[in-house]
Design brief:
Helix content is about 65%, strand content about 10%. It is α/β, with parallel strands linked by helices. This is STAS domain-containing protein.
């Protein structure tokens, strides 16, 4: 049977809205057993029912507005909030967007079954019209959830990237008043910014007078990264700490010279040990080798 959507959509959409509102409790209970809800709310089924009830009410609001194909319809805000937390949990559990999409698609069948039960005649035109509108609405819901899932995935990747950058730029205290950042791997602008922020925070927290930037493990730098390092040194100096750059490789030294970057005002040392020795000496601390037992006897 063919349904003329343009003629019946507003009326049928209102009918669908009333159905969703009237049957929200049954819908919520059936959704609570669906994979999307049951895999998220593993501790309390009541929470799954409550979440399903909120989504059903939100879809009823969308249907009432007649904007069943509009992902920007006001009712979908609640869907984004409610299902967004659920899909975020699924994403963090390792589920892909396509897997989540299949679970969202599984929400339509329980609602369609309840809708069919509203009509005595299986051939009722009103029932078919409502089913068409329900299919449209659930399809839009799927798009909204996918949009939310992808955004949640991007935010998760951004957070993990930030955490990796922070882990990759540890600030350690070598001696009282001496902090160091031993850098290993590729140094780009983002990581250079993290280095600057971490080092300046460490200078404040530990009242450091000397800060060592050890780039022994950095294979190359470009002009932008070199400028970032110089800014870091200048910022540390403004905060009352002397910054020492150690471990400059031959290739990096040639790059800096080739780029014409002036490091004349920056204190450098061959390695981390040399930088630490300099900082200790400046503080009046002398480190000497422990005499051996044989040497004492002689």
């Amino acid at each position: 049977m063919y349904v003329v959507e343009q003629d019946t959509a507003p009326e049928v959409a209102e009918q669908l809205s009333e159905f969703l509102k009237r049957r929200r409790e049954q819908i919520a209970h059936r959704w609570a057993d669906a994979a999307l809800f049951s895999n998220v709310f593993t501790v309390s089924r009541d929470e799954a029912v409550e979440a399903g009830r909120a989504v059903a009410e939100a879809l009823a609001e969308v249907a009432r507005s007649g904007r069943l194909e509009d992902i920007e319809a006001p009712g979908f805000d609640m869907v984004r909030d409610q299902l967004g937390r659920m899909t975020s949990a699924r994403t963090q559990s390792g589920y892909t967007p396509s897997q989540i999409a299949r679970e969202v698609a599984g929400l339509r069948a329980p609602v369609a079954a309840l809708l069919r039960a509203e009509f005595d005649d299986p051939a009722d035109e009103g029932m078919h019209a409502c089913l068409v509108q329900l299919t449209v609405l659930m399809g839009t819901l799927r798009l909204v959830v996918m949009e939310t899932t992808i955004n949640a995935g991007e935010e998760l990747i951004a957070r993990q990237r930030q955490q990796l950058l922070e882990v990759a730029t540890p600030v350690i205290e070598l001696w009282e008043g001496v902090v160091a950042v031993p850098l290993i791997g590729t140094l780009d602008s983002s990581r250079s910014q993290i280095v600057m922020e971490s080092l300046l925070e460490a200078i404040v927290e530990r009242r450091a007078r000397y800060a060592i930037l050890d780039i022994t493990g950095v294979p190359t730098v470009d002009s932008l990264v070199a400028q970032h390092l110089m800014k870091t040194v200048a910022a540390a100096r403004l905060m009352g700490a002397e910054c020492i750059v150690s471990g400059i490789r031959p290739a990096i030294a040639q790059t800096i010279v080739h780029l014409g970057i002036d490091l004349g005002s920056i204190l450098t040392r061959a390695g981390l040990a040399d930088a630490l020795a300099y900082a200790l000496t400046q503080q009046g601390i002398a480190v000497s080798a422990r005499p051996t037992a044989g040497a004492d006897s002689r």
